[in-house]
Amino acid sequence: MNTEAPVLRVGDLHAYYGKSHVLRGVTLEVRRREVVGLVGRNGSGRSTALKAIMGLVRPSSGRVVLDGRELAGRRPYEIARAGIAYVPEEREIFANLTVDENLRMGMQPCPEGVPAWTAAQMFDYFPRLKERRGTLAGRLSGGEQQMLTICRSLLGNPRVLLIDEPTEGLAPQIVAAVSECIADVHRQGVSVVLVEQKLTIALRVSTRMCVMGHGRVVREGTPQEIAGNEELLAQWLAV
Ligand SMILES: Nc1ncnc2c1ncn2[C@@H]1O[C@H](COP(=O)(O)OP(=O)(O)OP(=O)(O)O)[C@@H](O)[C@H]1O
Ligand SMILES: [Mg+2]
């Protein structure tokens, strides 16, 4: 059991798309060295939860507290500066810049108590990116762009990394590299919230899991507890 104080507390977060009430009171906590797997059926609100934490979708009410500091209602850039990084499902790269230039765009001064990442470490995670460091990012494969987006986010030295379906559409070998990277990142002291559609990967990489249904967290537990609960799997996770 991880007994460290939560780095990120999300409390009773609500959000709408127009009149549609999509987040209906999301509550979750993330401690240091945790990977919280946010799982659930399609449309359960996982991506919106990440966007609302990041300020990309404006929460109508609720709390997003990072290291004791209230961030709900702040602008995405302020939230990024406070120490939350977001890797969206759509890989965000600067297509006309090289891999190296993309990485440099992500670099930020390192606050205290957070691991300071270097480009060399990124290349250790993903040797393929090193081989392609002079290539324009727009020419990379989808998998390489995903690796680049993760690396660029890490170089901002975040306390918390929010990552939305990083393995979507990737070849098995790249899925393995990305999962290993996430598993290692949390050991280095970054907290991760991972939205992952593939339950086997979520179970393997997460240290704790939160199951979303109808716009809120309906259950939480260790990967073993979730995997062993047939009724929960059938009710909230089966397609
Ligand atoms: N930009 C948007 N405008 C209006 N409705 C949206 C928008 N984005 C998502 N929704 C709706 O909000 C609900 C939650 O969507 P969200 O993307 O958060 O789900 P999810 O759990 O990430 O699922 P998936 O990734 O499989 O779509 C869904 O009913 C979806 O149709
Ligand atoms: Mg989604």
TrEMBL record:
<dbReference type="GO" id="GO:0016887">
    <property type="term" value="F:ATP hydrolysis activity"/>
</dbReference>
<dbReference type="InterPro" id="IPR003439">
    <property type="entry name" value="ABC_transporter-like_ATP-bd"/>
</dbReference>
<dbReference type="GO" id="GO:0015807">
    <property type="term" value="P:L-amino acid transport"/>
</dbReference>
<dbReference type="InterPro" id="IPR052156">
    <property type="entry name" value="BCAA_Transport_ATP-bd_LivF"/>
</dbReference>
<dbReference type="InterPro" id="IPR027417">
    <property type="entry name" value="P-loop_NTPase"/>
</dbReference>
<dbReference type="GO" id="GO:0005524">
    <property type="term" value="F:ATP binding"/>
</dbReference>
<dbReference type="InterPro" id="IPR003593">
    <property type="entry name" value="AAA+_ATPase"/>
</dbReference>
<protein>
    <submittedName>
        <fullName>ABC transporter ATP-binding protein</fullName>
    </submittedName>
</protein>
<keyword id="KW-0813">Transport</keyword>
<feature type="domain" description="ABC transporter">
    <location>
        <begin position="8"/>
        <end position="239"/>
    </location>
</feature>
<keyword id="KW-1003">Cell membrane</keyword>
<dbReference type="InterPro" id="IPR017871">
    <property type="entry name" value="ABC_transporter-like_CS"/>
</dbReference>
<keyword id="KW-0029">Amino-acid transport</keyword>
<keyword id="KW-0547">Nucleotide-binding</keyword>
<comment type="similarity">
    <text>Belongs to the ABC transporter superfamily.</text>
</comment>
<dbReference type="GO" id="GO:0015658">
    <property type="term" value="F:branched-chain amino acid transmembrane transporter activity"/>
</dbReference>
<keyword id="KW-0472">Membrane</keyword>
<dbReference type="Pfam" id="PF00005">
    <property type="entry name" value="ABC_tran"/>
</dbReference>
<keyword id="KW-0067">ATP-binding</keyword>
